Predict the 3D structure of the following.
Amino acid sequence: MDDETTDKAIEKVHKIVQKIGYPTKSPDIMNPDSLASFYKKLSVSSNTFFANALSARAFDVNEEWSALGKPVDREAWGMTASTVNAYYNPSGAEIVVSWHNHVTAELY
């Protein structure tokens, strides 16, 4: 590659969002107040599994609709905190490697 192309490639690599470990924004899963605020509209009960499933789905749909017309939240993760996965999202220019502490402890 010529110098100009190399410089542009390096610039592009520096713009890739790296999401490693678990979400620390949208919400911060290590902060109980952040979690409580994020899930305040979610209603669950220990007695009603089906109603909980409906409530969780409605919560997810509301989150999707509330993002409509707003700038893309590049800090948001596309999976739950307990999901173990790794991927590169070229359209979002992001690398995601998620894991949970109990999983890493079992690997070693």
